[in-house]
Design goal:
Rossmann fold, globular, alpha+beta, Asparagine synthase, Rossmann-like_a/b/a_fold, 6-stranded antiparallel β-sheet, Ntn_hydrolases_N
Length: about 550
């Protein structure tokens, strides 16, 4: 296994509860090299780089390993939601292992003989799992249909991912471990429509940028709203800014043309990161492995991330801008729904892959996967039911946290520092207080962009494309990608034949060039999800139990 280089955010592992020293030693040896950060009764923490506690006294101590570190005392949920960091806290009578508020930074765990063992990478924990590993089919249902897992699911039944705003607690008096889930700040203190103007929101964003003053910044610019806003504010503050753009492999490359106009207007040094169609298979497999097969997204981002690692600049990422500022992934049906059930169904319909041109899944698999995803989505978003900001928060707690965040968190970091200004608590709360009706069709966002820089706001955007699009070849549909995709689909068809429909079995039988028929948006994402499953089977087939899916 080739591990990331943990330059900015360390790799950590350890355990709480009735720990077995041999199990700890196995865990330590299964991942990147670590050194002790804490070895105490019922608690152990190891880190790839020095990790001093942010609080320590005679009775208590507290560690965190996100990029933004807390200072001084605080309840675990306060640390989680304010700094979006996992951590380990000894409160005297109990030891608390907690995630971040949204769970952007991964924390995986496994129960074993009265203890919880944890790691910021999934693979090392498999050294403690029963072999052969039991497949978590619910996780794969969500990855295939939504492109990301839900709840605490991973592809393995024994290994879980600690969900946002959650903690595992070892009580010293009882000797038991329990799960503690609580409402983060944005749910405890439901925001109300305060009538904030675009200018007020912009002022808050300027305040957030003060944390980055003095740093050389890399602000990737696409043709959309988020990046032009973040770059405009950085330039207005006089920061040392450089901007890069790459192809999102969407078949148009409109982002590159629009970004050139935006950066020229802002007077920012601009660079286009080229991509090579011949390298796509290697990029896709490398990203799949680095993201531990949890999402088919981000293969296009791989060449860009490699260059960022050499840039010597803090990356400024627009994570969460769409859901917070322009109702991204929130359909008109969801906005107009009159019941909770209608709202939930409409939102899931927006997040799930649309119908492909031909059935990709067998009828039995499709029915089971659909039922699994509906149940998982209802559970994952149940705490948001009836909340004034239920719709954008549902997107943030699912797609943003489990799928989209992987590019800055796992591909840029942990090698390089990244900043996500929209996720800063002050901006997050202020943007959330603006009602969804004001954000419809991007109206409020356009006001915000105009307040930041009216000339940049007026330039063409991929969010509102009015001119005909020029088509360019897809890297993910070129001959090397077709050959790679066909090999992965062949593996799926061989090992789990009941997953695929007869039409898709026919396409696989016809060879790589038969995949040229799948050029539509929905088709491409279905192919990527199933190819990811095939790549995972290739890496883990010999370590899995018999592949007997629940629909077969």
């Amino acid at each position: 296994m080739q591990w990331p280089t943990f330059n900015v955010r360390p790799y950590v592992c350890g355990g709480i509860g009735h720990l077995d020293e041999s199990a700890l030693e196995t865990l330590r040896g299964a991942g990147p090299r670590v050194r002790p950060a804490l070895q105490a009764p019922e608690a152990a923490l190891f880190s790839s780089s020095p990790l001093p506690p942010y609080r320590r006294d005679e009775r208590t101590w507290a560690f965190a390993w996100g990029e933004r570190r807390p200072v001084g005392a605080g309840a675990w949920i306060t640390v989680a939601e304010e700094f979006e960091t996992p951590g380990l806290i000894d409160e005297g009578g109990r030891v608390v292992l907690h995630s971040g508020g949204l769970g952007l930074v991964d924390l995986y765990y496994l129960f074993k003989d009265g203890a919880v063992y944890f790691s910021s990478l999934l693979e090392p924990l498999l050294s403690l799992a029963r072999a052969p590993y039991e497949v978590n089919w619910d996780a794969w249902a969500s990855i295939i249909q939504l492109t990301f897992p839900l709840r605490d699911d991973t592809p393995y039944a024994q290994v879980k991912r600690l969900a946002g705003a959650s903690a595992l607690v070892f009580d010293r008096a009882s000797g038991r471990i329990s799960t503690e889930r609580t409402l983060p700040r944005w749910l405890r203190e439901e925001p109300f429509e305060a009538g904030r103007t675009a200018g007020e929101i912009l002022e808050i964003l300027h305040d957030v940028y003060k944390e980055f003053d003095g740093r050389p910044l890399l602000v990737p610019v696409s043709g959309g709203y988020d990046s032009r806003l973040l770059c405009s504010v950085a330039v207005a503050r006089g920061a040392d800014v450089e901007s890069w753009t790459t192809s999102p492999d969407d078949g148009t490359d409109t982002d590159i043309a629009f970004a050139r106009a935006i950066t020229r207007e802002l007077g920012v040094r601009h660079r286009v990161i080229a991509q090579d169609a011949a390298a796509y298979p290697d990029d896709a497999l490398a990203v799949a492995r680095r993201l531990e097969f949890l999402t088919p997204h981000h293969a296009w981002y791989s060449p860009f991330a490699r260059e960022v690692h050499q840039a010597g600049r803090t990356l400024v990422d627009g994570l969460a801008g769409g859901p917070l500022l322009k109702n991204f992934m929130v359909s008109g049906a969801a906005l107009e729904a009159s019941t909770q059930a209608e709202r939930k169904a409409a939102l899931l319909g927006s997040l799930a892959l649309g119908a492909p041109s031909v059935p990709f899944l067998s009828e039995e698999a499709s029915d089971w996967i659909g039922s699994s995803v509906r149940a998982a989505f209802a559970q994952a978003t149940s705490m948001l039911n009836g909340h004034r900001a239920e719709l954008p928060l549902s997107v943030l707690h699912t797609r943003t946290a489990r799928g989209i965040a992987r590019s800055p968190v796992n591909l840029v970091g942990p090698e390089v520092s990244f900043a996500a200004p929209f996720m800063h608590p002050a901006f997050f709360d202020a943007a959330l207080s603006v009602g969804v009706a004001r954000k419809a069709q991007g109206r409020f966002y356009r006001e915000l962009l105009h307040a930041a820089n009216p000339r940049v706001a007026a330039l063409p955007s991929t969010n509102v494309v009015k001119q005909p699009l020029q088509r360019v070849p897809l890297r993910s549909a070129a001959a090397p990608a077709r050959e790679y995709g066909h090999r992965m689909l062949t593996r799926v068809a061989t090992l789990v034949p009941s997953l695929l429909s007869e039409p898709l079995h026919g396409v696989v039988a016809d060879g790589p060039d038969a995949l040229t028929r799948f050029n539509g948006w929905n088709d491409r994402f279905w192919v990527r999800s199933l190819v990811l499953f095939g790549a995972w089977l290739g890496d883990y087939e010999t370590r899995l139990t018999e592949l007997a899916p629940p629909w077969a």
